[in-house]
Structure formats: C-alpha cells, structure tokens
Amino acid sequence: xxxxxxxMFSEGDASMRNLLGGKGANLAEMTKLGLPIPQGFTVxxxxxxxxxxxGKTISExxxxxxxxxxxxxxxxxxxxxxxxxxxxxxxxxxxARASMPGMMDTILNLGLNDVAVEGFAxxxxxxxxxxxxxxxxxxxxxxxxxxxxxxxxxxxxxEIKEQKGVxxxxxxxxDDLKEVVVKFKALYKEDMGKDFPQDPKxxxxxxxxxxxxxxxxxxxxxxxxxxxxxxxWGTAVNVQTMVxxxxxxxxxxxVAFTRNPxxxxxxxxxxxxxxxxxxxxxxxxRTPQPITKLEEDMPEVYKQFMEIxxxxxxxxRDMQDMEFTIENGKLYFLQTRNGKRTAAAALxxxxxxxxxxxxxxxxxxxxxxxxxxxxxxxxxFDAAALKAAKxxxxxxxxxxxxAAGRVYFTAEDAKEAGARGERVVLVRLETSPEDIEGxxxxxxxxxxxxGMTSHAAVVARGMGTCCxxxxxEITVNEEEKYFTVAGQKIVEGEYISIDGSTGNVYLEDIKxxxxxxxxxxxxxxxxxxxxxxxxxxxNGDNPRDVKNAVEFGAEGIGLCRTEHMFFEEARIPxxxxxxxxxxxxxxxxxxxxxxxxxxxxxxxxxxxxGGRPMTVRLLDPPLHEFLPSHEEDIRTLAAEMGVxxxxxxxxxxxxxxxxxxxxxxxxxLAVTYPEIAEMQARAIMEAAVExxxxxxxxxxxxxxxxxxxxxxELAYVKGIVVETANKVLEEKNAKxxxxxxxxxxxxxxxxxxxxxxxxxxxxxxxxNDLTQMTFGFSRDDAGKFLDSYYEKKIYEFDPFAKxxxxxxxxxxxxxxxxxxxxxxxxKLGICGEHGGDxxxxxxxxxxxxxxxSCSPFRVPVARLAAAQAAINQK
Amino acid sequence: xxxxxxxMFSEGDASMRNLLGGKGANLAEMTKLGLPIPQGFTVxxxxxxxxxxxGKTISExxxxxxxxxxxxxxxxxxxxxxxxxxxxxxxxxxxARASMPGMMDTILNLGLNDVAVEGFAxxxxxxxxxxxxxxxxxxxxxxxxxxxxxxxxxxxxxEIKEQKGVxxxxxxxxDDLKEVVVKFKALYKEDMGKDFPQDPKxxxxxxxxxxxxxxxxxxxxxxxxxxxxxxxWGTAVNVQTMVxxxxxxxxxxxVAFTRNPxxxxxxxxxxxxxxxxxxxxxxxxRTPQPITKLEEDMPEVYKQFMEIxxxxxxxxRDMQDMEFTIENGKLYFLQTRNGKRTAAAALxxxxxxxxxxxxxxxxxxxxxxxxxxxxxxxxxFDAAALKAAKxxxxxxxxxxxxAAGRVYFTAEDAKEAGARGERVVLVRLETSPEDIEGxxxxxxxxxxxxGMTSHAAVVARGMGTCCxxxxxEITVNEEEKYFTVAGQKIVEGEYISIDGSTGNVYLEDIKxxxxxxxxxxxxxxxxxxxxxxxxxxxNGDNPRDVKNAVEFGAEGIGLCRTEHMFFEEARIPxxxxxxxxxxxxxxxxxxxxxxxxxxxxxxxxxxxxGGRPMTVRLLDPPLHEFLPSHEEDIRTLAAEMGVxxxxxxxxxxxxxxxxxxxxxxxxxLAVTYPEIAEMQARAIMEAAVExxxxxxxxxxxxxxxxxxxxxxELAYVKGIVVETANKVLEEKNAKxxxxxxxxxxxxxxxxxxxxxxxxxxxxxxxxNDLTQMTFGFSRDDAGKFLDSYYEKKIYEFDPFAKxxxxxxxxxxxxxxxxxxxxxxxxKLGICGEHGGDxxxxxxxxxxxxxxxSCSPFRVPVARLAAAQAAINQK
Lengths: 874, 874
Hints:
The structure is a homodimer. By secondary structure, the first copy, chain A, is α/β, with parallel strands linked by helices. The first copy, chain A, folds into four domains: 6-241, Dna Ligase, domain 1 (2-Layer Sandwich), CATH 3.30.1490.20; 252-338, D-amino Acid Aminotransferase, Chain A, domain 1, CATH 3.30.470.20; 378-513, Phosphohistidine domain (Glucose Oxidase, domain 1), CATH 3.50.30.10; 532-622 and 657-873, Phosphoenolpyruvate-binding domains (TIM Barrel, Alpha-Beta Barrel), CATH 3.20.20. Helices cover 46% and strands 17% of the residues of chain A. In chain A, the strands form six sheets. The first copy, chain A, has an eight-stranded mixed β-sheet with strand order 12-22-21-14-15-16-17-13. In chain A, strand 27, helix 28 (711-731) and strand 28 (739-744) form a beta-alpha-beta unit. The longest helix of chain A has 26 residues, at 584-609. The model of chain A has no long low-confidence stretch (mean pLDDT 92). Chains A and B meet through helix 26, helix 28, helix 29, helix 31 and helix 32 of A and helix 26, helix 28, helix 29, helix 31 and helix 32 of B. Chains A, B: Mg(2+) binds at residues 745, 769.
C-alpha cells in the first residue's frame, strides 16, 4: 500500500508537473536532457495535500522516503549531511503546479551546524564564507520555519557592525561572523526556549513542513484567488544540493530570459553578478552586469550558457526564464520555466515562434494569457513614473487601466470639470444609475463601497473606464467634498491616480501612457478566431457601445439593457412620470413620449451593427431605482405632475421594497404593466424594420424577457410582444423574422428549462443573478462576509467574477440540456459578467453554448479564451 | 384518430370521475344502479381542455358528437328538440372533478323558442308555466351565455308588475308572461344586435361554450386556488332532460343529506318544497318543509326516496348530499355526491361508519379533510351571532380561529390591556419581532401589510392566535391610534372582531365559542397515527410551545429558532450590545451574559420534551433585525454602552443591507463571529446534559447550522460546534451522542447535497427560503405582483403556502437523493411553512422524508395528512 511520495530529479520529467510542481518537473527534465543541474529530489504535491489531510503532519512514510532520497543525494555528491569535513548543504524550495513567485518560502544552506560549519570552512578553504553562510541559514530558518522576526537578527547584526565601526556586512571578517552566529543562536534560544537544531535531518523536516505550511499563508491564498489556482493543488518541495556563486571571482549567479520579456525581441536578456548569491542580485546593493558581459568575463562559460539556453527554448518551444550559478568556473542551472512577459511581448513572441517554424498557429494561440490582453486595451502608468509613486490605499481592481486626474465628488461636478477639459477622477461612496453621465466624463472612478460587480464596476468595465471599487481605506465626505486616507485630507480639485488593474490608489498625478496595438495583435487574434467555436458578442446599451464592440471584434450584441437608456437627463422625468402614473391611460401617455426616444436608440444601434445580431432585454430593474429620493426632487416632480408633494412622496414610498433584488422587477413588471413591454417591443420592431428598409441589412430582432421563473409568465409576456411585433409588421407592410427568448437567471428557470424552451427561442444565461439566487447572497451585501470566507478558505474565488461550476454551473448545464431536449436548435448564450472571464468561458464552451457576451473591452479576451477552450478540448 | 368526447349517462360509471366530472360520473353510476335519473349525456373534461387548447373553440368533432348524443336523448324521451308539440327541454350544468359549488354556470329550460313554447304549453296543458319557463330561460341564457346583466331583465319585469298592479311574479298570468317574453327578446336584440336564437342546437352549443368559459371566471380561479384544484383539469358539461317540480301539488323539489352535515348524527336531514323549482328552494321566498314532512304529503314517494337514499349511502359508503325532483308524483334524482360537512360531523360520521362496519379504519381516515381539523382547535364565532354581523373588510386568512376584542395599536398597549384582563385585538401596519409580547397578549392580530408568511402570520400560527394579514382595505394611523375602514373611524379601545379562517373583519363584538373536542377525535387520530410513516414534529421556540406541541401529538421539535429567545425584554439590550461590540473580547463579555438565559430556555424545553428529539437552529436573521431604529432608543443604548450617539448610529447604519434576506445572516454570522455559535452550542449541550442527568431522559441534541450553501462553510462552523460540545462533555464528565446537521434552504445546498452530506448528519428542508431563492422573489415583496399573477393564471397557488413541486420540489428531491447516496442513514425533515400543508406533506411522504415539522396547532392536520399520504400511496 506504500506510495511514492519522493522523486529524485533523475526519476521525473516535464510531463509530471501536477505531481512534482513546475520547478521540480523542469529540474527533472533538465536532468534528463543531461544539463548541469545540482542534483536533489522533489517531495510531491500529493505529500502536501496529505500533510493537510492528516491535520498538518507529515506521515512517517513520507519522512522515511525523504531520508532515503537524502542518502542518494549524499552518494551522488559524495558528501555527507552534517559531516565535519566538506558537508552536504541543500536548498529547500517550494514549487507548485503554477508559478507563484515570491508567495511561498525558501531556505538556503540547510545542513550547517556547529560541526558542519567547520567542515565547510575547511572544504572551501574560506572560513568567512562558511560562517556567513551559517549565520544566513540561522536567520532564514528562524524566520521562515519558526516565525521569529527577521528584524531581530538585523538588529544584532547592526550592533556588531557598530561595535566594529563598519558599515557593510562584507566588512565583517570570519571572527566577527563567528560572534554573529553565537549571538543569533542565543537569540533563537531566547525566543524558542530551546537550542538551534543541530541535526540536519531535523532541520530538513522542519523546513519541508514550513514550505507545506506556506502554501496556506495569507499572501498565497490571495495570489491563488487572483490567479484562479485551486487550493487543493498543494505545493511540491524541492531539495537540491547547494552550489555557491559567492566563492570568488570565478563564481557568480544570474537570471536570464531567452527573449526580451518586455518587448518580446529575440535575443538573450538578463543579468548576473560575479561572486554573489541569488539574493544579492535581488537585494540591489551591487549593480548586476548585463548577461552579454559574461562573454568577456568567462567566454567558455558564456558559450556553454548560450548553448543550453537555446537548447531549452527549443525544447520547451517557448521563451525561457532561467536561473544559473557559476561555482568556481563551473556552470549550473538551478531553474528554467516559461518566462512571464508583458502582453506586447507575449504577442510578439507567439507570432515570432510561428514565423520561426517552432509553433503552429494553434500552439501559438495557447501561449498568451487571455487576461493579459487587457493591458493592450487600456492606458497604463508610465513605468518609470510609477516606480517613484507611493501606494496609499488599495481597493478592488474593478475595471482595468490607469487614470490620473483631479478628484470630484458628484457626477454633476465631474461632468462640468470634464467639459472644462480637465482630467477627472470621480470619487464616490458608491455610484448609482443617476451618476452615469458623470462617470462617462471621468478618466477613472474610485468608490468606497461595492464589489467587483457593483454598479460602478459593471458600468466602468462597459465604458472601458478605469475603476477601483470597494476601497474601504478611504473615508469620503461627499457633501463637504473631500476624502481622507492614511491621515491625509484630499479636497476637490486635487490630483490623484488610480490603477484599475491592481486596485492601487496614489495621491499624485502619475503620467499615463496609451497602449499601442501592433500588427501582431490582428494576426494573432485571427488565429484565435479561426480556432474557436464559441461566438463572442458584447453587452452594450447605446450606439457608442456598439461601435466599440464591433471594433474589438464582437459578432453582435448579446445584451442591450434598455433601462440604461432611461436615465438620460431628457428622459428620466418622463420615465418617472410614467412609473408614478395612477392609471394605465396616464402611463400610456408617458410611454408614448418615450417610444420615439427608445426607437431612436435602437435605430442607432442597428445601424452600427450592420446586420449583426442584437438581443434586447425588456425593462428589468425595480421601478424605484428610477425614482428621486431627495425631497427637493420629489417636490419638483410633484409640481410637474400636478399632484401634491405628500401624495407623490407616499407613492414613492409605496414602491419601497425589503429585498429589491427579489422584488417587483424583470418580467414581473411586464405582467403588471403590459403596456411597458408593448412600447418596448414596438420601439425595437419599428427600429429594426426602418433600418432594414433604409440600409438593406438583414435584421432578426431578438427580444429577451428577463427574470422568468415559470413558463406561463414567459408565455404571457411573449403574447404581448408577439402581438405588438406582428401589428408593427402589418402597419409597415414588412416581413421580418424575429425571435423571443428569455434570460435564465432564476434557479427555477433552469430547473424547468424544458418547459420554458417550449416558449423561448433562445436562452441567455444571466449568471450574475443566477449566482446570487443559487448562493443566496446578494453581491451588494456579500462584501460584509466574503473576506472572512476567503480568509477561512471557505471560498477560493469570487463567484461573481468566476463562474461557480459546482453549483451554478450545474444549473447552467441542466438548463442547456433540458432546453435542447425540447428545442434542439435553441440558441444558448451567456450575458453575465462571467462572459468575459476565461475559466468561465471554457466552461461555456464545454457545455456547448453558442456564444458568450461581455463588455466591449473584454471582447478580445473572450475571443482568445474561447479559442483556447476549443484547442484545449481537442 | 377520432376520440370519444361525449358519454351517455348509460355509458359511464363512478370510476370515470376525472373524465366525466363528479356530477357526470355520479349520474352515470346512478343510471347503472337503475335509479330514476332524467337521462342525458356528459361532454368530457377533455373536451374542455381541448376547447382552451384550440384557442377557445369547440372542434367540429366534438360538436358532431354532441349532436349525436342529443338524438339519443330525443329517442329515449320520445321527444324532439324544438318540437311544436311536447318538445324536449334540457338543463346544461357544469361538473368538474372536484365539487366547486356555485362557481360555474347552469342553464335550465334550454330548447324553448317561439314555437316550442307553444308545444310545451299544449303538452303540459299549462300555458302560464310554459311562458314562465321561456322567460326564465331567456333571462338565464342572456346572462350566462351573453353576459347581459340580469338586472336589466328584472327591471322589465318590475315595470310590467307595476303596470298590472301586482307585487309577486306568481300573480302574473300567462298573457302577462307572453308580454314579458316579447319585451325580454326585444331587450336581447337591443343589446346583442340580433334576435334571440331560435335554433335549440345553437342554444345548446352556446350554452356548452359558456360552461367551458365559466371554468375560467374570476371566482372559479380564486376558488381553485383556495382549494388546490389545478387549472388544467377543466370541467365537464352535463346535458340532462328537464323534469319539473313546479307542475302542481303532486310535484316538488328538494335537497337532503343521509346524515346531519352539522353534527354527523345518523338520520335523513333535508328539506323540500311542493310545486317549486330548485331555484325557489334557494331563493327563500317560501319556507321549505323538513324532508320528513314528505312522508305525510306523498308516502309512496317518501318510501321510494328513503330506499334510494339508503342505497346510495351504502353504495358510496359515505354520507350523501342529494338533489331530487318530483314531477307529477314521479320521483327523479338529479344529483348525488359525498356531502360537505363540519369537522365535528366529519369525525362522527367517519367513526360511525367504522362502527357500522361500512368502512375500515384506514378508509375512515380518508374521509376527513385534514385542513378541516383547524376548526376543532380554535375558537369560532357563534353561528347565530355571525349571521347578523356585517363584513366590513377582507384580508388574508393568515391564522385560523375567531377573535373579538378592543383594538390597540402598539404591542406595549396591547400588553398592558391584556394585563388588565381585556380581550385585545392588535392592529398594526405590520408586526416585527419586537412586538412579540404584545402579540402573545392578544386574542387576534390584524395587519395592513404582509402575506401568508409575513412575520405576523408565522408567529400567530405558531401561537395558535387568530390573524388576518394584508388587509389593505383599512388605513392605520399607529401614532394617533386609530384606523379607518369603509369611511368609519375606529379608535383605541373600540371593539372589532376578526376571523382568521376567512379573513373577514367586523366592527362589532361577536360572541366566540370554544371548540369542544369529542372522544371521536382521539379515536380517529389514533387510526391516522397507525397508518402514517412520516413522523410529525412541531416548530417551537420556548417551553410553552413545546407543551402545546406535545399535547397536539408532536413527536419532537423540528425547529427551535434560537433568535426568538433574543427578543425578550430583559435580553434584547444585551443582544444589542453584543452585536455592536467592536472587539471579540467585548462580544464575548455579552455572550457570557446571554449564555445562562439561552441555557435556561433549552433546559425548560428539554424538560417539557421528556426525551423527544429537538433540532435547534443556530442564530439565523441578519443582525440589524435586533437593533433599535429610533433615535431615542439608539441614544439610550449609546449611553449604556458608554459610546457617543454618533458612533453608535454609524455602527447601526453600517449594518444596513440592500437585500437583507440575502445578506449577512445564517451560518455567515458564525463564520464571521464564531464566538456566537460557540455560546449557543455550549448552551444547548449544557442544558441537554443537565436535564439528562436530572431527569434521566435520553437526549440526543440535534444542532442545526442554517443557510449553508457550500460544504466548507458547514465544515467550518461544525468544527466550532463539535469542539465546544466535546469540551462541555469533558467538563461535565458526561457521555452523550449529538448530531450536527444543516438546513437545506439555498439552491446551491440542494445542488451540492452529496458534498454537504459528508458533513451533515441530518438535513432539514427550509422550504420558505428555498422557495424564495428558487423563484427569485422575497415573500415580503411578492405581494406587489402576485395578485396579477393569479389573475392572469400564471400562478394557480401561493408557492409559500403550498410547495411548488415542479421547481422547488425538484431541488428537494435532488437533495434527498444526493444526501442519501453519501450517507444512507441521513435523517431528512422539512421545517418550512409547508410542513403543515397537506399537499406538501404528501410530497414529503413520496420523496421519503423522515418527518415534517409545523406549528404546534397544525400538528393534528399534519398527522392526518401524513396518514392519507401513506394510504394513498398503497
């Protein structure tokens, strides 16, 4: 029943990534390729999950296998752990399936103790080096394994430097460092109540445990959530013979990329330091040399390095990010992996690799992370300017891009400032539909409340405007027009900058740069389009959105939210009067005034679409969202409507709901006020017929009835729509096919999709609401507890950002199957926020939807994700 | 492909109820028994649904079959339709599967026209009778078939009576009635723009159509909803040869029951009128004779009648409700059916029929409508006093029983008046948890807002207190302490009466009577208990509830809502301080104060339960429900807590939620504040252990974690509960089994029930919330549109009162199956409002739940419904 928990590097290969982690698999692969790799072994990711399953203990079986592997390493190196003459030292590093740089812990120089350090000094002939290594090990082990703060050790070191009257660590000699070691051990004993462990095996087991434990440290959890990495993957642990780049002038260490990770340019790119360890390169005390300089310093080593780099790139068929060390003139590779790169570099590398014959087009499509494309579509901060800037607060990265401008606190002020030509950042507690014009006039939007799917976030993404939401660290006083953060007060008109891709907030005017889209983009996206089966539409509510969407490659509009048209300044008073009408007759009067406006919008959209399809959703939100809440506004409206303030205020109050999200909205409005649906159906059909006649486009209007939970309610509203549509066609003496369908956004609709498909000609999954109802929490309120849920590892990701395939996905799949059973040619799409999320898109591909619809700026992301899903499935 | 749409009475029998309707099937059965039945035929219920499927038209095939059947009736009677000598006349009556008295339409004397009336006059030798029949037919046909108001005809009749100087219709002679007929036909022509139809076949088709159409009239829709009759059943139409009880002193008509429908006493009970038609018995102009008087008037007929009545009761093995007519000394039966009866009568009849050897005990169990038992458990109005009372408004029949008392408008006032010994009716806009003590002090509760599952309704049912909710016809001014209705103003202290079984409101002090429970009840319920498989528990939150529940036969508590204990006067300030605590330490301080109180309640409940099981739910509602909303209360609390008003007000405001039902509640509270769950688990376990030690009861506490949607959140909270429970057992040095389970009330919990069952030892279906989430509407807000939904036949019943088996039921079944797959011995129950609804209980039985839990006063209903479900399934 025993299982293999530990693999020597010589026992694995690159295909074993899930078991050995990325780093372990690549070390094994490089060993197999015969490259110079300090040997060692990998404790598997399964051992990590076993550690957690066993209540955070490493089983005896695993411990035994680690000890056995260690013996093999000793034999290979002909060194012994803890030997008093030339002892074996190892590094212990994490290595998960997916790269998580800096998230988990590393321990170097493990194996040193009071005896071994002497042997090490003798073996290397360098006592200073040996004691420096030992004191570094004590510090690292204490910090990483035992949780003793690093700064305590730094303080001891500083004291000794002061005593000796020196400034740099390097100015301390071997004896000084011996003293440091003594003091470090004393510090350890004081804190831990026991001696620093002298048994290297004990050190090793503790270190492995620490790496396993670090899988669940808070920054790793956050990183995983941001990068869709499941918590049950676990991390592997790599135990590797130490090599030293700091043994003199024929030693060194460095990192290099086979191509430029910023531009993608083909050519080695990297840097190294003579006589240094890896951490020195990072620390930035000495300035590293460009890698090409190595050719002068050590021509033979350089030649060997370049050969191996080229071999690795050819082998992995991707740009490589490599770490290496030169120990006394001998080159070792410590790591290789596919290098992280900017979006522009990713495109160039993908296209170049195809041109170089290294990849097929489909393979190239897999080389770019869909979410990265965002970088190409939004302004970013100038890299140099950003480096100097200080983050004062962090909110949610709600809509990508960077923005800098003067702060304003009301939509009205933002609008006016925008009209004056100012760059504006709108700062609000939260936004509401009334703010829409002010939002459109702003470079960026910052809100205190609200999550990734709050009004601000959704609208900003739709507009392609940068947005940081839910930034609870700032306190806004909208009335007195200032906000405070970190003890500072920022008043109207002062400059701030926000980064919607990271959530960072800065109190300064940081330079932004517009992205340049190269020819590589079009070529690359062409390959993606050729590979995908899913169509990609955009959500858009007006002709401007449609133009954006089409430019980004949308094949139609998947969701036109008609209510967004209702908020425009000229319209909202009529909308309000319509809502507050006491009789159908009165309501029809105001609807008649709205008809030409809605129709005009639809005509504009149909014109911009040039024959591409568009799904228009009938009025959806609860009516009170359109109503004024301030006394003053109600008084004005009452005067206009010729009723008393008291009466109107009472009517407004009567529309209050306990749970508006689950109240009188969606098709429920059309059931109680059929005349609203009638007006909207007429506006859509008249617009479609007129544009079709004027422009010759072939239009098949798709009219969508929202919030259906029961087939009879769909049938009722559909009856009104069909009757109206046919009347319009008759009046205009026109023939036109049109489709009536529904959103699937209520669990009961999914459960009874076979019935609903009898009436619905298409389904569009409204996964925002479906997620809310299926989980039983509203996205506006979930902020109060979701952080606790992430912290306690109950949820690993935000189900509003990434589709919950286990629960919500079950309903989507069920509805798709039931729908197709009743109506085999039913058209299926998704129009929730998930329509722009790559992992959700992959799910949509798998369950066989026809299209996804997302905000215009996400369309390229969706096109690429759809392509990757199709390629993955094969 | 032709189908049989029409059955002669001689072609059917009692088993064909679904196809022929109740009346049609019984007429066929009586024909088969050789009883004297005027012959005719039945158009099937399928023809009715076909009529609706074909867009409200009767197909040619059906019309043809009707005409063929008519020919057979002509042959049987040797009369011809529209004959100028002794023509055939028929009645046209509806007859659905379930009896719906008075809901649909009837037409008598069909077949008369200008020619036939003469033949009829000649044939009967009674021209006055013939013309009276004709004018009645014109009036009835015009009203029922054509929708011309009856009152127009009454006005014409009144004019003629005035001209003739007479007062009664009977004083008009044949010539007068001829004139009436002429004027009626003129009126018809004026209204319809065409002549009154002379073709009897046309009359018949129109009449059949009218009956089909009446299936969907508003009162029928309401009746069906109240009586759980599906809208797709349709009604059959019975066309029957007319017989006349108004042909002289050897004619007559009457209705009779084989046993007394009010008391159940065995013996004929009924009344009749000599020389009259059925409508005259109802009209009340002449006083009918008791049926026994018939023995004197017509001994032969009486003897025959009694023989047939006895034969029918023996045949149907149930008390019969019969209609009969005597035409010229010849007895005809027009209808028989199982008679409606009071609850007391139902019990007596069921028990007597067993004692008489006519029924087995199981058969007897099927003879009582479960909902009827309500009558036996609550006060009712004195029948005579009620007759004289005037209904001034109608709300929802939210909690059964009758109440009369002085009105009070605040819980405080109600409590004080109750303490003074007054009978109190509490009148509120809506109730909230703070009103609970005032509600307990009241005889009845009347609210303006809120549905069948509003706070007032749920709490009142739990207390067994009469409640009328959602009575929008009254306007309450709580501050000035009065309400107005129908133009009248009722101030504090005035008497009103309300009927929670009908929703009626009266402005007077109507005498109420307490129900008497006879020995029949216990005997009958014993048979029910023997027949059922489902256990029946009650929902209860305190020792008083438990006592009630046990008295009503509950086998345990299925849901103890711990939050209800939080609202008591002495506790709420501590609860508030606990909620508003800034630190865990502070919160624990207040929790420590609450612990002994909760524990005391649990001890009281465990003592009353005497070893029966109890499921205790951890804190569920959103926290702001406990908080004060008035400035004054916040100020008081702030002073007590030693914080500023502003600070406390801000904290209270920060707990505001957009959609509280989908907010920070249920197990989400335990995830963010584990110390609350800890305190509650401790209170439950300490209480259980102490009662078990003191009383020797064997207690297995069942701790229920609410609102779970994801197994990991259950695992987390369960971890806290288990740790605490084990600690208590250790402290008390006790051994006790306990179970931890969850509510299934969120769709995702049902969808992932296989995962959840890994942690949950029991499931309790919280179908209130599950219905809300599955339908996507909150019960508090649905009132705004549900009426439109009923009106437009989108919903046929209130899904909060009767479980929606199509949608919500699918989730329940799925969860039951998945749960059992993971954990075969998982205990499954339901604790939503549906646990007391008979049709929902039948569903619970079918999907194999272990128990249902309902309010204490519904326990007998649930026991009977569970028995009937078990018997039905066999």
